[in-house]
């Protein structure tokens, strides 16, 4: 067999062996979380601390909330960390999760163009603002991807008396993508968009966008973490996963979350002690 | 020198080759016996190439049968053929010869020695490591000859081997053919060059429109052709 | 990666995260090309040289598969490798191995289809000689593959280009996990979605430079080989 063939076979065997070794991970867990949490940069801040303390590699797969819960249902993740309480409780009731722990909250902000076509800037009332947007037919970008943010957006429309599924017009654009993509689209088309504060603070392509509405209690966004039920999927690393959860809700983890700042501003407010959250 | 082998005689028995509605060879009866070279002559399209391919075993007759040493369906282990435009493998001249030897099952231990001998026989010794595709037309033809001889054949078929060569290259090839014939390898060659036929032939077989028109020993054929077609052809006129 | 550095600064400073990403990209795509070559070259050669019923249909299908949408392949491989899927027990999802598998699926049809065409053309030229030498099927396949080796390098480069450029498959099966399955293309997608467009563009230029470098290397090797063997 000639040299080229021999080299090819060696390389292929080596690469398969490498891949196999990588697959047999030692101390690591897979956490299914959301793109907005990832984009906020929180994980880059807190995960190195967790690794330094426990030696556990946390591999975050960032997807939309719907996809993250699906990944957990399939057993492809050990822990799921999202911000959509109704969906999380449904996940628990289906038996896929062990227990839900509240971890922290952040808030949503309504972002809009500086020119403010709907006339809502500096309002503290999100519901009135949404009503104004619809009335004026101002361009609005929705994530449209069944994520936690998307579900929060739909709920707010409902509170404003709008069944957005039926009452939307050409001013309402669903893009079916993550928070960053939604912000990019809003920036490019000078539209309104509901975003989590974390992604907004890290977002660099703002164009003419500014915060239009913030501070309304209805804009608060609660995060919960759950261990995937090892009885449904035997491969779940329940000890390592539980260590991660325990750390998140511990004094040390909560402090790490609170200390994460962008431009001096705190993003996430730890509330593991708030049992009703 | 090789002993006469069981490959010969090659006997065509009422062989016809058709391609669709066209008849290329028509009821050929022919015996190729050991001895001096047999030269096939005739105008273009007379069926010389096809006859060679059938004799080599590359093409099966549509009707009739062909036997080698009395047997049908003998695999071409002891036969070799050189085409008019031989295909060169993308490697050196020596590697081309070694490839042919491997394909013919010659033991590996003998490769180096035989390659050297063959290259010397065809006058390509200094070009052993040159890329075969970069040899001149004449050199490639000689390499093709060496490749064919590498199989240690009992019969060597040649399809217009010098048709695209200049006179010096033609002479070189003809000299090799003579040397090969003297080693008791049966040479069966097609050519449309009457001069070459005269120089090399022991027997002549003349084809016209897929049929054998006349066969004779070379001297008789050239001096006293019997048929009208042969006379016309030898006179240098177009045979239609 | 420091987020307020430009791509050029990251390159010049030898930023370890950037280099890890480049290394992983090359490892995944080159491995996929090698595996695809091991499968695709013999497959293409055999299809070129064998007559069998339905051959034309197979050739049409092979050519069409060159246009497999990466995201569809990603989804299919994801479902296969998921713990709930048939190959879940290997635990390959969200690893480099899954990315290699997905890209191998994408690249094999390209290499097989191009090999098939190259070998078929070469067979027309060599058919008489190789038949006259009484070569069996295995001998023909190996002789033609070796003879076509320079054209096949181009097929491999086409496959590499496809693998290095795609993001749809590997982001689904790899999960774009920082430090483990983040490659150049998935990093570009991430920085774009974070709105850091200058960094994304910079990374894109680095990726293009690397692909050009790989092509230049392969081309030089080919030229050297041709000079030796004609």
DSSP, total strands of chain B: 9
Helix content of chain B: 25-40%
N-to-C CA distance of chain B? 42 Å
The biggest beta sheet of chain B is recorded as: 6 strands, mixed
Rg of chain A over CA atoms, rounded to whole Å, is: 21 Å
Task: State mean pLDDT of chain B (0 to 100 scale).
Answer: 92
What oligomerization state is this entry in? heterotrimer
Summed up, the helix count of chain A is 12
Largest interface: A-C, 47 and 35 residues
Strand order of the largest sheet of chain B: 5-6-7-3-8-9
User: CATH-wise, what's the superfamily of one domain in chain B?
Assistant: P-loop containing nucleotide triphosphate hydrolases
What would you call the structural class of chain A? alpha/beta
- Percent in strands of chain A: 15-25%
Uncertain stretches of chain A:
20-24
CATH fold topology of the largest domain in chain A: D-Maltodextrin-Binding Protein, domain 2
| Strand elements of chain A, count | 12
Describe the structure.
The complex is a heterotrimer of chains A (277), B (240) and C (230). In chain A, 44% of the residues lie in helices and 24% in strands. Chain A is built from twelve helices and twelve strands. In chain A, strands 1, 2, 3, 4, 5, 6, 7, 8, 9 and 12 form a ten-stranded mixed β-sheet that branches. In chain A, β10 and β11 form a beta hairpin. About 2% of the residues of chain A have low confidence. Chain B is of the alpha/beta class and 240 residues long. Chain B contains eight helices and nine strands. In chain B, strands 5-6-7-3-8-9 form a six-stranded mixed β-sheet, with helices on both faces. Chain C is globular, with a radius of gyration of 20 Å. The model of chain C has no long low-confidence stretch (mean pLDDT 92). The interface between B and C is medium-sized, with 24 and 18 residues.
């Amino acid at each position: 067999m000639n040299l080229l063939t021999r080299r090819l076979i060696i390389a292929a065997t080596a690469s398969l062996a490498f891949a196999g070794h990588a697959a047999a991970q030692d101390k690591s867990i897979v956490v299914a979380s959301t793109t907005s949490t990832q984009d906020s940069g929180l994980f880059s801040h807190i995960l190195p601390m967790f690794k330094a303390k426990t030696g556990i590699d946390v591999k975050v797969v960032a997807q939309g909330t719907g996809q993250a819960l699906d990944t957990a249902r399939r057993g492809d993740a050990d822990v799921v960390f999202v911000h959509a309480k109704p969906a999380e409780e449904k996940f628990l009731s289906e038996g896929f999760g062990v227990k839900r722990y509240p971890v922290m909250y952040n808030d949503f902000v309504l972002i809009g163009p500086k020119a403010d076509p709907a006339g809502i800037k500096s309002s503290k009332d999100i519901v009135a603002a949404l009503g104004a947007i619809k009335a004026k037919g101002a361009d609005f970008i929705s994530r449209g991807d069944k994520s936690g943010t998307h579900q929060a957006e739909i709920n707010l429309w409902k509170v404003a008396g709008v069944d957005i599924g039926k009452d939307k017009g050409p001013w309402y654009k669903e893009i079916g993508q993550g928070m960053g993509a939604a912000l990019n689209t809003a920036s490019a088309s000078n539209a309104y968009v509901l975003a989590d504060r974390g992604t907004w603070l890290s977002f660099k392509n703002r164009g003419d966008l500014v915060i239009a509405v913030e501070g309304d209690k209805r804009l608060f966004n609660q995060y919960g973490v759950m261990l995937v039920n090892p009885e449904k999927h035997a491969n779940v690393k329940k000890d390592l996963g539980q260590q991660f959860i325990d750390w998140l809700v511990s004094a040390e983890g909560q402090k790490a979350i609170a200390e994460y700042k962008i431009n001096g501003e705190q993003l996430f407010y730890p509330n593991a002690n708030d049992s009703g959250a | 020198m090789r002993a006469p082998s069981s490959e010969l005689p090659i006997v065509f028995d009422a062989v016809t080759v058709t391609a669709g509605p066209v008849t290329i060879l028509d009821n050929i009866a022919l015996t190729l016996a050991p001895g001096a070279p047999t030269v096939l002559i005739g105008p273009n399209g007379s069926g010389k190439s096809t006859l060679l391919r059938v004799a080599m075993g590359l093409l099966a007759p549509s009707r009739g049968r062909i036997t080698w040493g009395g047997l049908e369906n003998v695999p071409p282990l002891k036969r070799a053929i050189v085409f008019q435009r031989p295909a060169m493998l993308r490697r050196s001249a020596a590697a081309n010869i070694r490839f042919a030897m491997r394909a013919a099952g010659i033991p590996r231990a003998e490769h180096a020695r035989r390659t050297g001998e063959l290259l010397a026989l065809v006058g390509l010794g200094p070009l052993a490591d040159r890329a075969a595709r970069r040899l001149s037309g004449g050199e490639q033809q000689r390499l093709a000859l060496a490749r064919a001889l590498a199989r240690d054949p009992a019969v060597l078929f040649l399809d217009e081997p010098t048709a695209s060569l200049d006179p010096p290259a033609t002479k070189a090839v003809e000299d090799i053919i003579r040397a090969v014939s003297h080693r008791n390898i049966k040479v069966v060659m097609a050519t449309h060059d009457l001069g070459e036929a005269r120089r090399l032939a022991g027997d002549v077989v003349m084809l016209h429109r897929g049929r054998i028109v006349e066969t004779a020993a070379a001297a008789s054929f050239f001096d006293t052709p019997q048929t009208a077609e042969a006379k016309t052809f030898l006179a240098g006129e177009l045979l239609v | 990666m420091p987020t307020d550095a430009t791509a050029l600064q990251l390159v010049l400073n030898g930023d370890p995260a950037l280099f890890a990403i480049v290394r992983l990209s090359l490892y995944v795509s080159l491995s996929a090309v090698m595996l695809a070559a091991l499968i695709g070259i013999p497959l293409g050669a055999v299809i070129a040289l064998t007559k069998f019923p339905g051959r034309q249909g197979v050739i049409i299908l092979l050519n069409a598969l060159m246009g497999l949408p990466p995201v569809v392949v990603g989804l299919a491989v994801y479902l296969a490798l998921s713990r709930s899927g048939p190959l879940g027990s290997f635990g390959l999802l969200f690893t480099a191995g899954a990315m290699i598998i997905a890209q191998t699926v994408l690249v094999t049809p390209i290499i097989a289809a191009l090999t098939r065409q190259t070998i078929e053309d070469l067979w027309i030229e060599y058919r008489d000689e190789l038949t006259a030498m009484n070569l069996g099927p295995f001998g023909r396949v190996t002789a033609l593959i070796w003879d076509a080796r320079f054209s096949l390098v181009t097929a491999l480069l086409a496959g590499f280009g496809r693998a290095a450029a795609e993001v749809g498959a590997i982001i689904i099966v790899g999960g774009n996990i920082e430090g483990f399955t983040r490659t150049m293309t998935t990093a570009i997608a991430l920085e774009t979605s974070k709105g850091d467009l200058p960094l994304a563009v910079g990374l894109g230029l680095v990726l293009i430079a690397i692909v050009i470098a790989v092509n230049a290397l392969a081309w030089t090797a080919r030229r050297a080989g041709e000079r030796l063997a004609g």
